[in-house]
Amino acid sequence: MNNLVKINPQAPEAEVIEQAATILRGGGLVAFPTETVYGLGALALNLKAIHRIFLAKERPDWDPLIVHVRDMVMARPLMKRLPPDFELLASRFWPGPLTLVVEKDDQIPGEVTAHRPTVALRMPWHPVAAALLAATGAPIAAPSANRFGRPSPTRAEHVVEDLANRVDLILDAGPTPVGVESTVLDLTQSPPVILRPGGVPREELEKVIGEVRLASAVEDETARAGLAGPGMSLKHYAPRARVELLDGEINETVITLKRRVEELKREGKTFYLLANYGDDRLYAQTLFDQMRDADSQHADVILAIMPPARGLGLAVRDRLLRASGSPAASDGEKDES
Ligand code: AMP
Ligand code: MG
Question: Rounded to whole angstroms, how far apart are CA atoms 144 and 118?
């Protein structure tokens, strides 16, 4: 791959950053690491470049993009007004895996926000992302650098698998440290609402601003984990293998697991086990990589043990639930959120 370039994750080489920034300024696409997953970047205020993101990802136009900023000076003109809690949250969690949904300024093209009156803003801490934002001096729209519906990319190899020659440059800084996407928090509602659980846990947000609600879609899915039959949730973040969820009290889970393993063996099916072994941070970090690993090993079934719905466990549960959605949902409407 001649568009794949290695870059130092702690101290990105200036000439590589400049090469990437030049491509972005010219309206090109650059895949780059953030602390969450790899992003597919284009200048947020360049309409042609934005169109290229949707084309490359095969992303439907109703799915809005997150706009990345370097600092508050870059963020402020993108917003119509500062909602309550914005400054408090930004001072505590930025740079970091928290995306804040606010009323958008008119200069942001409607295509970026799927014609919503709001925009999702994030300031990543990953040194490569930060250096790229500093070099371009302009906001960068960057959804996850995967094909729509596939597990998000946590390694440059995943970007190559999904997007290869559809991007102008892929910056390879090794695996991303958080491994799941940012928490998306809607500040246009009061109390604020988590639209997508992610890298910043709900509990951490509540320590700073008090009550934070979970969007009903997230709550419903979390509540019916384990009960969900195929077809109940929309398939997304999906490996090719069928994802079966095991949830509930640990002793019962172990019994169910043993039974399923025996059944699958009898049916001649191969399986791949996903579990946290008591460490939700590690589970989040390796989740998408393991889903892709299961596929590369041609596993028929992924048996996934659900972590408890707290801390990063909430984000892991959300992704597993979506990945387990029925195959019927995968060729129809999908929900990237
Ligand atoms: P991705 O960048 O691929 O992780 O996806 C971005 C996600 O952020 C979208 O799928 C939405 O769920 C969410 N998002 C982005 N912009 C908005 C917005 N204006 N309002 C609500 N959610 C948003
Ligand atoms: Mg995505």
Answer: 19
Give yes or no for a contact between 187 and 101, defined as CB atoms under 8 angstroms apart: yes
CATH number of 242-329: 3.40.50.11030
- Structure-token pair, residue 103: 């009323």
Ligand nearest to the CA of 119: 1
Same fold, 4-181 and 242-329: no
pTM: 0.93
State what percent of residues in the chain have pLDDT above 70.
91
What homologous superfamily does CATH list for 4-181? DHBP synthase (3.90.870.10)
Ligand 1 site residues, Cβ closer than 6 angstroms: 63-64, 66, 101, 113, 116, 118-120, 143-144, 181, 184, 195-196, 336-337
- The residue extents of the domains of the chain are 4-181, 242-329
**Ordered strands of the 66-68 beta sheet:** 4-6, 169-172, 30-33, 38-43, 140-141, 66-68, 118-122, 98-103, 183-186, 193-196, 213-214
- At residue 169, the 3 state secondary structure works out as strand
> Which pLDDT value is given to residue 174?
98
How many Å lie between the centroid of ligand 1 and the Cα of residue 66? Answer: 6
Question: What number is the average pLDDT over the span 168-176?
Answer: 98
Q: Which atom of ligand 1 is nearest to the CA of 336?
A: 10
The 10 Å Cβ neighbour count of residue 308 is 12
